[in-house]
Amino acid sequence: MLALRTNFPRVRRLFSPSFSKTGPGFCCQDRTLTRDGPSRKASGQRYNEPPSAEVVARVSGIPTMARLPYRETADGLDAAFVGVPIDTGTSNRPGARFGPRQIRVESAMLRAYNSGTRAAPYQSIRVADIGDVNVNLYDLQDTCRRIRDAYRTILAAGCTPLTLGGDHTIAYPILQAVAERHGPVGLVHVDAHADTSDLLLGEKIAHGTPFRRCVEEGLLDRERGFRVVPVEECWYRSLTPLMAEVRSQMGAGPVYLSFDIDALDPGFAPGTGTPEIAGLTPIQGVEIIRGCRGLSLVGCDLVEVSPAYDTTGNTALTGANLLFEMLCVLPNVKYL
Ligand SMILES: [Mn+2]
Question: How many angstroms does the Cα of residue 253 sit away from the middle of ligand 1?
Fold first, then answer.
C-alpha cells in the first residue's frame, strides 16, 4: 500500500476536478505532465498517461491499449503499442487475427503504475497506441513485407515497438526490421514450441518457422550462443534465478523479447491456436519479463492470443498484463 500512496498525490494533480469535467471523449486525449518545465516535444505534451479510473470509467471510450492516446505514427514516441492482426500463418486453430483487438479491450484494467515493481513507465517515457499494421489476410508474403516496412518506419522514429499479435509469423519480419536498425540481436523467446521448423506444408513462411528464418538471415547474434530451457526444468520453481543467467548470456547488446502466450499452461491461457499442457504459470511469465529488466530491450511482442477459444477473456487479459510488464522493463523506465 505504501507504493500506491506514493503515487496518489501526482494522480490528483493530473486529474483535478475541472479536468474531469471534460467528458467521455477525454480519455483519448494526452495526459500532460509538466512538472519538470518546458516540454521536449514539439506538440507541447511530454508524456501520455491513461486516465485515472477515479474520473473516467474504464469501460468508456474507444479501446486503445491501456487506454492510452491513439497516434497515427510513432513520431515523437519512445515506445508504442502496435497490433499485427494476422492468423494466416497458423497451423491448427486460427483466430489470432482478433488478438490485438481483444487485448486492447481487456487492457482497460491496466494501471498507470506497477505496484509490484514500482515501475512508473508513463512518467518516464512517451507511449501511445499507434494502431495496427494494415496486413494482407490473403497473402502472407505481402503481409511480411508490410510488417517489415511498418517496423522500419517505427524504428526509424527512435521508437521501441511493443507488439500485440497476431500469430508468431510476425516475429520474422519484425526482427528483419529490428536487425536492420540495431544489428543482430539477442533473443529471449518464451514459447511452448521452438518455432524453428524449416518448412510447413512446403512453405517457408508460417508461424512454426520464424526463428529458423531469423538464424538463416543472420538476424540473431550467434556470438551470444543458443540455449533451450525445457519446461520440465521450470516446473515447481521460481524463474527469477534462471533470468539472472539469461541476463548474463544476453550481456549489454540489443535484445528482443518474443513471448508466445501458449508458453503459459492452457488452464491459464486457453485462448490460443496450438495449446500444450503442463506449461508455465502466469507468475513464471511475469518473473521472466521482470527478469529482463536491465537488458537493452529494443522491441517486444506478445503473440498468439486467439480470443474465440477463451470465453472468459482471461487469455487476452493476461496478454495485456504481460505487455504492460514489458513496457515496465524497457530502458529508461524509472522506478519510484
Ligand atoms: Mn510461437
Answer: 24
Averaged pLDDT for residues 11-38? 38
**Using CA atoms, how far apart are residues 82 and 161, in angstroms rounded to an integer?**
7
Pick the CATH number of 71-329 from 2.60.40.10, 3.40.800.10, 3.50.50.60, 3.40.50.2000: 3.40.800.10
Q: What residues sit around ligand 1, an ion, with C-beta below 5 angstroms?
A: 168, 191, 195, 260
- Render pLDDT for 188-238 as a digit per residue (tens, 0 to 9): 999 999 999 999 999 999 999 999 999 999 999 999 999 999 999 999 999
* Å from CA of 43 to ligand 1 middle: 39
User: Looking at the predicted structure, is the pLDDT value of residue 257 above 50?
Assistant: yes
**CA of 126 relative to ligand 1 center, distance in Å:** 29
pLDDT for residue 282: 98
- Cα–Cα distance between 274 and 262 in angstroms, integer? 7
Query: How far, in Å, is the centroid of ligand 1 from the Cα of 33?
Result: 38
Which strand (E) or helix (H) includes residue 283?
A: helix 282-290
